[in-house]
């Protein structure tokens, strides 16, 4: 089974090249002003051009209005929109209809009961991103470098399309894969030397850890 891997929060040519050269299936660009990973739509459009044909480009937004989404889609031409705020199922439907693009809806988890939030989006969102709830006081809905109990995902439907996110890094991704067996992985802070600063060595180490985990499972 193919395993999708998204390197999110890219801002530089060097980091993008590292993600692509190591085999990322998706590259993410964050359009949330409070994030240290924020990128201007025009800059994202330039980087996105370099990824065309090699990885799917994902525009990550947080409760963005139509005007800002228009700007992003025009400048970047993403392959997918990721809605990482409190967007309702109705809003997801509106965004899909307006841009004719697949939408990945992010949900924040801490306990098994939090999985019930997924139900209203089933059949509407094209994919889910399952992230850890942000720590108290954080201004960021994601990219906080915290994990959740991956065991709560063990009972999910086998055909549920999602990416696992939240605190992943080279040291723990093998355990996450063994417990949750996710169809996709999303990483941002776990391949950074400082908030918003991607480290090409850490990117390579993450992909090496994923390959090692897959090899061990196949043995």
Seen as an oligomer or otherwise, the chain set is single chain
Structural class: alpha/beta
Helix content: 25-40%
Low-confidence stretches: none
- Helix and strand string, N-terminal first? EHEHEHEHEEEHEEEH
Rg, rounded, reads 16 Å
Q: How many distinct helices? A: 6
Summarize the biggest pleated sheet. 8 strands, parallel
Tally of strands: 10
Distance between the termini: 15 Å
Offer a concise description of the structure.
This protein has 219 residues and is of the alpha/beta class. It is built from 6 helices and 10 strands; from the N terminus they run βαβαβαβαβββαβββα.
Please, could you describe this protein's structure?
The mean pLDDT is 93. The longest helix is centred in the C-terminal third of the chain and has 19 residues, at 200-218. The protein is globular, with a radius of gyration of 16 Å. β1, α1 and β2 (26-31) form a beta-alpha-beta unit. α2 (41-51) runs parallel beside α3 (66-76). It has six helices and ten strands, in the order βαβαβαβαβββαβββα. It has 219 residues and is of the alpha/beta class. The strands form two sheets. The protein has an eight-stranded parallel sheet with strand order 7-6-5-4-3-2-1-8. It has a two-stranded antiparallel sheet with strand order 9-10.
